[in-house]
């Protein structure tokens, strides 16, 4: 076999498809027949210096893929499979891998590094392979450079693969020592130095203790800063990447070094090659991210305790940082606006300037204004564009008081530039800047409007005209109109200032969607999105115009369904368009369906519309499915019990959606639609409940489904119970144990991070909504006593939530409501249980005195329900 | 394991409209779920059912009547108060009359008066429901007719931008409209912001009434969106001082007797012995019933309901039989089942054996006024009889309170069951 595997591996890379296919089949058989021998053969092939480079490399890759996979459930299977292998086989494989690190072949070494890291990722958390780090680091100083390089690379990959708590501090110290020594300028070999620098990037997460030690931190920082001055560009880039990682991981330790770092980055931005300069700018963007987060947490209240204090690095560096960034703006590339993947120093610099504005607010304005004024009328388009981009960048962050007077002066200039400037680049940035003005300085919450009856018509005329410009400019004009409409959205039922222009706006946007070149620069998407926003802010007066749009959009959707024989590329575009059209119809349904006056007229198209949505499900695109499903949910909400007639046809797609683990967004949205159906159909949903419940229960037990879908599934149980009442009886024996074990899991969050706590709270909320719906569904039925056996556990769950003290306001409101629902439905028979619970006393009292009106209202309801239950 | 890509979004709005569509859908779904939940919480508990089929309705002939099947109108028609407002005429009268808790007349002093009861002076005026919902308040008299329709500071009682409750929510108060100061005196609360209080104790309802009514601004003087002032009635524990305050204390309204409410009693529609009314000349202008001309008739008059076998009964449940008409007389006078008939009590009066009615000397006067929905209750007849012969006096309450306090302090006998 050992002879044979080389040939099979070579054949698997053959040009001849038949040979390749046969070889892949052979490999598969070998793996299935004898996995340990298969894996060992691969490791042996990789380690064997006499074998061809191609077969060694592929052997390593197959081995790596046998240890790890992207999908969580598959990954879990592979891990279990490896752990179950015979220890001696694993030892032989590992020994082959370690041996390969000293191979003269760079490919073989690099492949082995990655495989070792994958094995370590499985074994170290299990406290297996304890000698690994020691083996790698023993006599590292005596190793030949190529082995040293491979060893450092391996250490870096291990740090990327394994979580810090799986490695002892003693080993961490040794790893860091080796890595930092490898980075040192005394290291003569550039490959070794680069490998060490990249390894440090991954090892930084392990260095918590070392960064708390002044001496060790000083040493690490000195070495990193020195590496940014290396003659080798890749080492400089990797060193700046380390600085970026340090800025977010160890922000609070940076004060002593920030001055030096500024000098280093300023030099790099000015003089170095672009990949290095981009990382230098990224360092400051990353510092902005940190300070924005910290200041957000302060919430304007500077006495509040934040875990990390703000050092105001940006504010201090402002006088030198801003000129440095402004200078980058003049280094634009000619066609960066047409190139989706473009990323250059001007773009990075402008982005950073925007972040700086958000960090420091008003202080940035006087520093940027001279640059804008000095460049905006210059003959060179680069200067005009840079000035405009600078202006657009600082519109978020500073106060309206500071910005509105400037914007009022600039607005006319911008409108005329958008019409007349000869440079597309300038027009693109100008339209974007107008969008930013409307996004941040226009809306009902602002005292001094920048859009007035005096200039509204001109603004709209210019934007509609600009939508006929080249695609990238037209797209930005659509974006500006989006924010202009959004600002009027929450004005309420009063007459909208858009009303006189509404018809023109709809026509212009619809025209844009039909442009031949609408596929470029995301223009079609932008036009539909803006159309959606304009529909959202329509009023009773403009509703008939929205109504006229319905047959047009339906016709477009119909056409996409009729087109046949498309190439893969065309089909993808078609699916994208179907998604946009379904999205647009969804917005229209939601808008027109929310008013009795318009609902009736619009529902006359419901049959036709539903027919189109169902046909969209025959496409393979997850996005199109998601949008069609959302639209159907909105339609069910608007149609109410009349939706029943579509159920028999729609049901199989509903089931399909609930089974879509892979595109979990589709699954999540379908779960939401089940809720819509429950409320629309009420007990008429009964015939479909067996199937729906089966699917939901399967979803809950699946470890393939993304966890974020599980809380809404629980809430959905509540929707179903509320709709079908006591007929939920037959699902109790399945649903209740699921709820109970989820409740036990979610009762405690101790030690979890913020994300986990947030998830736990959403899970709790789902569970509680399920209980609420079930209790209310059974209320007044002769079968209420079926729920009695579950009451002790539910009360216990509420009590433990109260004790845990980490629920958010939403959970609190739902939880206290459940207490009321339990008392309301079970009445007197649950009275002793209720009176014994902490929830009915301390928790209830706390909620009754809450400042949150929703919590208070729920608590008052609970109080009343309890007083009724115990006074019977 | 490529190097990290620090590319950031460039000239792009931070939110995509697709994400916004998802979020808005989730928002709509969450709001709908809340509404459904809220409706479920309010609903069943406040549906007031039309409990009995109308006693005077003639059963329709059923062609295929199956044995054991209930009568066609037997399943109770369920209404809530808003649906009920569509009822007309006798149906409306019967329905609304049944929705109020009607105190019995006090014919003897209940035990534990000072511990278990509240007392308050009843304002003189028209007893009515006030229902506020959908931006208006409507008051209806016991016979279902509308007294006023008006904007009010009650929850959902006016078309203002009141965001404190959903438009669906409604509130129901049990009130007395007091003409002289054009004020609704709220004596009980049945529903508040959609939450039913029917099954709550009087203690809780009064607490809720006291704490919630003022919060809304309904007790403020009238204004554009608030046509009538509401007011609370001081409620006392029925001990010496409480009774004294209710009986002799100054009140901003004209008094019409005293009302006694058992603290534990739920709001029970129809007649209930857990709420009692008592009057004497000091606290009411109308102690003895008058006729339609406002004169006190020489003899006490009563209204009784004619039953199948000629029996004459009160409106109590179960009814109390006061006498019997013979078949001939019924035929001759053209009377039929369920008619309300007016009688005078003759010189023979009422006689009691073991605390129950033994005999009544009744003289037939004729059919009663069409506006009447019900026969008199037993307690009313007996109270009116006592007023004319041996009235219950305020001193009887006071001495009952003192003696019960004494009794509390005495050791009790143990009752042997074996």
TrEMBL record, chain A:
Main subcellular localization, coarse class? cytoplasm
Family to which the UniProt record says this protein belongs? Belongs to the importin beta family. Importin beta-1 subfamily.
Compartments in which it is found:
Cytoplasm
Q: Which PANTHER family match?
A: IMPORTIN BETA (PTHR10527)
Q: Which domain of life is it from?
A: Eukaryota
- GO molecular function, one example? small GTPase binding
Q: What is this protein called?
A: Uncharacterized protein
Q: What is the species of this protein?
A: Punica granatum
> Which InterPro entries does the record cross-reference, listed alphabetically?
ARM-like, ARM-type_fold, IMB1_TNPO1-like_TPR, Importin-beta_N, Importin_beta
From TrEMBL, chain B:
Keyword Cytoplasm appears in the UniProt entry: yes
The source's domain of life comes to: Eukaryota
- Which UniProt keywords are present, listed alphabetically? Cytoplasm, Nucleus, RNA-binding, Transport
Domain (Snurportin-1 m3G cap-binding): residue spans on this chain:
99-275
Q: Where is the composition biased (Basic and acidic residues)?
A: 63-81
Query: Where does this protein reside within or beyond the cell?
Result: Cytoplasm; Nucleus
| Entries under InterPro entries matching the protein | Snurportin-1, Snurportin1_C
Per the annotation, which location comes first and is thus the protein's main one?
cytoplasm
Q: Which residues form a coiled coil?
A: none
Q: Where is this region: Disordered?
A: 1-21, 51-81
GO cellular component entries: cytoplasm; nucleus
Name a single GO biological process. snRNA import into nucleus
Question: Where does the record place Acidic residues bias?
Answer: 53-62
Mind telling me which residue stretches traverse the membrane in this protein? none
* Any single Pfam family the record assigns to this protein: SPN1_m3Gcap_bd
Which PANTHER family does the UniProt record give? SNURPORTIN-1, SNURPORTIN1 RNUT1 PROTEIN RNA, U TRANSPORTER 1
Q: Which family does it belong to?
A: Belongs to the snurportin family.
Function as written in the Swiss-Prot or TrEMBL entry: Functions as an U snRNP-specific nuclear import adapter. Involved in the trimethylguanosine (m3G)-cap-dependent nuclear import of U snRNPs. Binds specifically to the terminal m3G-cap U snRNAs.
Q: Kindly provide the name given to this protein in its UniProt entry.
A: Snurportin-1
* Organism this protein belongs to: Punica granatum (Pomegranate)
What taxonomic ancestry is recorded? Eukaryota, Viridiplantae, Streptophyta, Embryophyta, Tracheophyta
